[in-house]
Amino acid sequence: MDIKESHRDISATQEKLHKTRDDQTHKSDALRLQLQNLQYEAYHLRQKIAQCKRFASRHTEINLVPVEEYNNIVSTDAQMDESVSEEG
User: What is the pTM (predicted TM-score) of this model?
Assistant: First the structure.
């Protein structure tokens, strides 16, 4: 093997290594950018959640009907509807 051939082999190997390094660098940069975007989005979502939790509505003091009373009202209304439809 002569010197020129050795030099060509070394240069080809070096080019392959540079290309591999560049490809890996691009992949790493893309993943880093994706991570930063996700962190940015998560930060803003946490801010929105905190804002929603701090939200004070005028309707927070609504008097709700107990479930049992609601069920009685609904069943009474349903019975009235049945009796009206039977009469009609």
Answer: 0.51
